[in-house]
Amino acid sequence: MKLQIDINCDLGESYGEFRVGNDAKIMPHITSANIACGFHAGDPMTMAQTVNLAKKNNVAIGAHPGYPDLLGFGRREIQLTLEEVKNYTIYQVSALQGFARTAGAGLQHVKPHGALYNTAVKDEKISKAVVESVKALDGNLIIFAPPKSVLAKLTVDAGLRVAYEFFADRAYNADGSLVSRKQPNAVIQEKRKVVERVIKMVKEGIVLAFNGEIVNLGEVHTICVHGDTPTAVELAETLKKGLMKSGIEVKPVSGFL
Known about the structure:
The protein is of the alpha/beta class. The protein has helices at about 25, 45-55, 80-100, 115-120, 125-135, 150-155, 190-205, 230-245; strands spanning about 5-10, 30-35, 60-65, 105-110, 140-145, 160-165, 205-210, 215, 220-225, 250.
């Protein structure tokens, strides 16, 4: 059976006159787009433009909801009630659903952003709030989550599909969690190293941790490349070519999950 993998990227993170990343250039090299919904980044104009750009490039569309934290880019944990988490998630995902629908497209997935993602990965209550919100909107949506995480387990328990995610350009701790961005070398920018570790993950399910230990994450379905890193476009292009050269088919995750 041929190996298949999805490449996802966080996009649509510009806001007003503030520009983040280069969505137009990176879009041809990915297969799924996580589009910001206006809380941590993005705005209605950017959301509409990014949806249309994804459709033009045959890239699957996903919602990327986060904490209401424009100043902190959604990377700061905010203490919210479970009702707030539910309603903020519903608000953001349904907004992107509207833009997708008017563009003649649909949503493939939901991937929480930044601190909301990191909290949902380990906090059962927050994770449940996110999953219940997604299920209430559309039970066919796929949720992106790390392998063996609380978010992944609760997604399966709720009867939804989960796409196990691996971060191409982020260093890992020995317990399978991501190295904090506050630590040096948390983001990997060397293209050759990124491609090698991704291919190893797809074929063997393992990654070398920050301390040199081997971490077994098992099967993964989607690879994340961050669109706001300086080398993002080159990294995504090199990664896609490297995967295809090694015999791995690159396509939207809904095509094989």
